[in-house]
Amino acid sequence: MTVRIAAVVAVLLSGVASASGQILDQPVAVVRLTETVNIGQRELRQQARVIESQMGRELNLENRKELLDAQIAEVLIKQAAARANIRVTESELNQAIASQRQSIGQPVTDEQFRNIIRQQTGLGWDEYRSEIRNRLLQERFVVEQKRALFDSVPPPTEQQIRDFYDDNATEFTNPTMARFRHVFVDTRNATAEQRTERRRLADELLRSVRNGNKTFDQLIAEADDDPRFSGGDFGFLIRQESQQSQLLGRPFVDAVFQIEEGSIGREVIESNVGFHVVQVTNRRSARILGLTDPIFPGQSVTVRDQIRNHLTNVNQQRVFQRAVNEVVSELRSEADIRLFEQNLNW
Predict the structure, then answer these.
(1) What's the pTM value of the predicted model, to 2 decimals?
(2) pLDDT-based confidence at 295, cuts 50/70/90?
(3) Which of 8, 79, 128, 335 could form a disulfide with 123 if both were Cys (CB 3.0 to 4.6 A apart)?
(4) What is the CATH number of domain 174-288?
(5) Residues 110, 101: Cα–Cα separation, whole Å
């Protein structure tokens, strides 16, 4: 062990109280590949609490050792990636974040997306971006180190695809959904007086269509030049989708599904974000999909495509875990690691 590491460990084990009377954090590991990193008990306990809340039980000593091994692996790969000059550009980082944002399945504002991240991960925006960057760096390093393993992953066969479909056919369904166009008057951040004015505007827009003074197409076209409202195709609203219901409000979802296909709602519908004049253009009942059916109406991705992608990802994840294990084993043999397993007993 180097003098620097010995000095760090000596300080951490000294048990000397700070001026405020607090004991310094106890180390559970000191790791050095290119620089010394102390993994403290406080940090590990915080991670353990997150996992315990997700699992609904306390982690035993063996679980804590596994958690520590994972933390050591992360430190080693991060340092090795930096040593190998692995970089992630701002464009690549933003693309990865955009991909996660799209996975929500519905349009959300920047503020709504950040709130979702905070609720699901407990991370602030800068912390989240840092976590995504670290993940991309580490994944890229592992893939570059073990590229031959990934190149050898075979694609799933047609029989494997059919077997998977037969075992999981009831999982491939189109839920009850409705596609609609709308003229939308935004009420976010509006005062009570502004909301009243905007409700009056929405009522006037609906009345102009119902009286035959304007067509729905004309209203949507006018939205391009009138900053007071917007218009266009919303896409499909899924009745059972909890995130859509949370964003727009359950009363809005229920009101849309009361409108017949091809019809315009008789009243302005209020959502959590504004007032809507709605025209339902397509209704779909729930049904089980076949292998050649598109996953979602209007998309080109079929059930077969999704199964193929899923099986490919499963195979790649297996190979990735093998690659991580090999890389970490190689790095551990090179690194200076000191464990303090007695501090895992808390």
Answers:
(1) 0.60
(2) confident
(3) 128
(4) 3.10.50.40
(5) 9
